[in-house]
Specification:
- This protein is an alpha/beta fold.
- It has 2 domains: 357 residues, Divalent-metal-dependent TIM barrel enzymes (TIM Barrel); 62 residues, no CATH class.
- Helix content is 45%, strand content 11%.
- The protein is built from 16 helices and 14 strands.
- The strands form 4 sheets. Strands 5-6-7-8-10-12-13-14 form an 8-stranded parallel barrel, surrounded by 4 helices. Strands 1-2 form a two-stranded parallel ribbon.
- Strand 3 and strand 4 form a beta hairpin.
- Helix 3 runs parallel beside helix 5, helix 5 runs parallel beside helix 6 and helix 12 packs across helix 16.
- The longest helix is centred in the C-terminal third of the chain and has 25 residues.
- The two termini are 32 Å apart.
- The model has no long low-confidence stretch (mean pLDDT 97).
- Bound molecules: D-xylulose and cobalt (II) ion (CO).
- D-xylulose binds next to loops.
- D-xylulose (XUL) binds next to loops.
Length: 449
């Protein structure tokens, strides 16, 4: 469908039109070099594979403040001084940006879109009002909502946690906020609903009953799931792991921790994982590792696309431009059979020093091109029998005979000892890591030519 480029009479990104694919030879900073939405790779278009989303929080509210300084960006949609007007203007600017960038999806926290209020009933009304406006803009532009979430970490009331707060009154308050955020997500046709537990953890073990807090978190997620299903939400609930920051320890530490928690509480299936690259690296893993753990359990739901910085240990949320990360990430996504309801959400922010409005486009274009290249290379590697044969050969002893019997549980320790005694010292079998790494490099060079 033709998408209207901006709504109303105010154009926020004037001078920038719809971003076009111009191919790898283009030097236009405002054009895609690799992301060609309709190009077919492995039976699906790039748009269908990648399902890009722009996030509201960093992109339209992140003015560049850090612990040492105030914001550096002046947003024209934040200049009216009236809360409701600013919420409306931000929404129009956001939909203009989405449409010009030509992404199919967007994501939001309740507090990013609604005019603020500490009064619960007033906040619910503010949220409902902006959701109605957003739904209208979705109709006008063809945009879709990938997911919504509630910000249960910014307000001082949540300083000791939201669903894991030691005080029941705060848990109830958090539940009220999640209820209206689920309502908002459903009203916008959101395909997923996310929980990121920014303050679900502890600052000190000395004052914390971790046993109670973890039980409360499970109960909270269960009741949120039940409510969502009761109002007709058919999408996926997602938990986004992160080991620390802001808390010293967060309960949703990494993929494997969250998978164990979901399984233990009977939530796996309704809930899947939203894997964020920079959170995986904060946990001491790679992005691909956390994706792999989720994929192995059939719980890979969605991705928050960004990257950290190897020289510092915090959540820098940089745009995902590291080609190896994108290749290894897309290899996991492809081997998982692709996204179902999930997608690639740019939970990424401009550097504080990037102060031009066009930098917002340039950063997203770079991230989209990086994942498009990652997709092309990943598909090329996975179609190369040199690569796939190395892996299947490595595990071939399980295909039949005693290996298969072991897998089916019919060999005990005594039987295994007899086999070891009979066969003598096992032959050495090379892991061929360097060969596989070389093959990856060969494909980066050849598939992107
Ligand atoms: C914070 C983070 C969040 C979640 C949504 O590190 O990633 O923005 O994605 O609350
Ligand atoms: Co995130």
């Amino acid at each position: 469908m033709t998408r209207q480029l901006f709504i109303g009479d105010r154009e926020y990104f004037s001078g920038i039109g719809r971003i076009q694919y111009e191919g790898s030879q283009s030097t236009n900073p405002l054009a895609f070099k690799a992301y060609d939405a309709s190009r077919v790779i492995a039976g699906k278009t790039m748009e269908e594979h990648l399902r890009f989303a722009v996030c509201y929080w960093h992109t339209f509210t992140g003015v560049g403040l850090d612990p040492f300084g105030v914001g550096t960006r002046d947003f024209p949609w934040a200049d009216s001084g009236d809360d409701q007007q600013m919420a409306n203007d931000k929404l129009d600017a956001a939909f203009e940006f989405f449409t010009k960038l030509d992404v199919p999806y967007w994501t939001f926290h309740d507090v990013d879109i609604a005019a603020p209020s500490d009064d619960l009933a007033e906040f619910e009304a503010n949220l409902a009002r902006i959701v109605e406006r957003a739904a209208e803009r979705q109709r006008l532009t063809g945009m879709k909502c990938l997911w919504g979430t509630a910000n249960l970490f910014g307000h001082p009331r949540y300083m000791n946690g939201a669903s894991t707060n030691p005080d029941f009154a705060v848990v109830a308050r958090a539940a009220a906020q999640v209820k209206s955020a689920i309502d908002a997500t459903v009203a916008l046709g959101g395909e997923n609903y996310v929980f990121w537990g920014g303050r679900e953890g502890y600052a000190s073990l000395l004052n914390t009953r971790t046993d109670k807090e973890l039980e409360h978190m499970a109960m909270f997620l269960t009741k949120a799931r039940d409510y969502g299903r009761s109002i007709g939400f058919e999408g996926t609930f997602l938990v986004e792991p992160k080991p620390m920051e802001p808390m010293k320890h967060q309960y949703d530490f990494d993929s494997q921790t969250v998978i164990g928690f979901l399984e233990r509480h009977g939530l796996a299936g309704d809930f899947k994982l939203n894997i964020e690259a920079n959170h995986a690296t904060l946990a001491g893993h790679t992005f691909a590792h956390d994706l792999r753990m989720a994929r192995d359990s059939n719980l890979l739901g969605s991705i928050d696309a960004n990257r950290g910085d190897a020289q510092n240990g915090w959540d820098t949320d940089q745009f995902p431009l590291d080609l190896y990360d994108c290749v290894h990430g897309m290899m996991e996504v492809l081997q998982a059979g692709g996204f179902a309801s999930g997608g690639l959400n740019f939970d990424a922010k401009l550097r504080r020093e990037s102060t031009d409005l066009e930098d917002m486009f340039i950063a997203h274009i770079g991230g989209m091109d990086a994942f498009a290249r990652g997709l092309i290379v990943a598909d090329s590697i996975l179609s190369d029998s040199r690569f796939t044969d190395l892996v299947s050969e490595r595990y071939s002893s399980w295909e039949s005979g005693e290996g298969a019997q072991f897998e089916s549980g019919s060999l005990g320790l005594e039987a295994l000892r007899e086999i070891a005694l009979r066969d003598g010292e096992p032959a050495k079998r090379s892991g061929k890591q360097e060969l596989m790494e070389n093959i990856v490099n060969d494909h980066i060079a050849s598939a992107l030519r």
